[in-house]
Amino acid sequence: MSTTSPPSVIKAYREQFQKDFSKFLKCRADEMVSEGRMVLTILGRQSDDPCSKECCYIWDLLATSLEDMVAEGHIEEEKLDSFNIPQYTPSPKEVRNEVEKEGSFMIDRLEVSEVNWDASTGNNLNLSEEEDVQGYNMGKCMRAVAEPLVLSHFGELTIDEVFKRYAENIKSSMSREKTKHINVTVSVTRKG
């Protein structure tokens, strides 16, 4: 999803998240003893806007890479138009609502945290003196997540070029601004 997604797509993704998360909670409740505890950390957002920069920006950078390849004739525009990343990043309010609606758990704690895109940022780790290290970790992480989807949709011939461009876009973004993921963490107890 992105800022250009039509309302019907946003609604469909939200409803799929609600259905899947509810089913997940029900299945975990069936496996747990009364008063058993569970902690979940979910990639999410702080904003109520499901297309906010905090949750969609990393995917917008992939879209930019793909759009550039379309403009250069390496990828067909129809292929790009039919490509979707099946991810919905819930807000804390949405997580709370789903836990309460499903009904098997009591929320003990619900928190939001920020995680730098580059794991070495701020940790005084000198992984290399090379300038292109910034964004390397995030580029590799996102390739691990997205490569199967990109490969199955666009084919093997474009995969290395897509992720080379994507890593460059990530690096460029990280050099201009402080980039973070948002995690929603919820601690719950199984009702008796």
Can you walk through the features of this model?
The termini are far apart. Helices cover 51% and strands 16% of the residues. It has a three-stranded antiparallel sheet, with helices on one face. With 192 residues, the protein is of the alpha+beta class. The mean pLDDT is 88.
The largest β sheet comes out as: 3 strands, antiparallel
Query: What percent of the residues sit in helical stretches (DSSP H or I)?
Result: 40-55%
Specify the overall morphology: elongated
Radius of gyration: 19 Å
Q: How many alpha or pi helices? A: 6
Structural class: alpha+beta
Enumerate the strands of the largest sheet in spatial order, edge to edge or round the barrel.
Answer: 1-3-2
Search tags:
3-stranded antiparallel sheet; 192 residues; 6 helices; 3 strands; alpha+beta; single chain; 51% helix
